[in-house]
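Dear colleagues,

I hope this message finds you well. In preparation for our joint manuscript, I am sending the GCN5-related N-acetyltransferase (Pararhodospirillum photometricum DSM 122) sequence together with its predicted structure, so that both groups work from identical material. I would be grateful if you could confirm receipt.
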Amino acid sequence: MARQEKGAPHCPFAGRTAMMTLQVETAADALVIEDLLDRAFGPDRWLKTSYRYRDEIAPLPSLCFTAVEDGRVLGTVRHWPIALAEGAAQGMTAVLLGPIAVEPSLKATGIGGRLMHLAIQEATRQGVDIIVLVGDPVYYQRFGFRLAAEFGITMPNESAPRVQALPLSPRAQALTHGGVVARAFPLAYPVAA
Ligand SMILES: CC(C)(COP(=O)(O)OP(=O)(O)OC[C@H]1O[C@@H](n2cnc3c(N)ncnc32)[C@H](O)[C@@H]1OP(=O)(O)O)[C@@H](O)C(=O)NCCC(=O)NCCS
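The corresponding structure tokens are as follows:
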């Protein structure tokens, strides 16, 4: 299913990416995405603490997107369910954005930005209260992300300056003591490094 996303930023490769579509990820994309993630992050990406929030938990199919051109996957963004415990955000619908990656030879051509805008638009439409991610604030603040600590949200064993949050609903925007990010399933519990 192709999606028409709004607000795509200026793209220096406008000619070639004009044919690029953003789509909901399909089962057929799985191996290609794993290969893209290995090349974008390196094979030790599985050691990252953020993966402990994903172990044995399926990503949210309606919030996993690919950027595709001529049948080739050029970018990927996925979301995992998470829980927010021990704070005012308990019970809110929270998701962990990532991994997001773009074909290395096409970095900084706007693909990541288009995936981010679609991800935020769709998470909003699907009723997500708050998006959390671990990444470089310099990149994510342009999409409205702020330090999760500003909403009183902490993520065990992650570097606090890299933990970002984007509240989508009014009740999430009002958070000051959101709570602790925890695994969503089978039980919400903090992650040990
Ligand atoms: C991060 C990533 C998804 C961004 O996608 P992209 O298509 O390359 O980025 P865009 O074209 O949308 O945006 C380019 C801008 O983002 C900046 N940018 C890209 N990655 C950045 C990073 N990690 N930190 C800070 N800024 C970054 C570029 O410098 C550029 O800035 P400018 O607009 O001021 O010139 C992509 O570069 C990538 O796959 N990187 C490797 C994997 C990775 O680090 N993923 C994110 C993990 S948190």
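For the figure legend, we might mention the following. Residues 40-41, 100-102, 107-113, 135-136, 138-139 surround coenzyme A (CB under 6 Å). The chain has one domain: 2-183.

With kind regards,
E.M.
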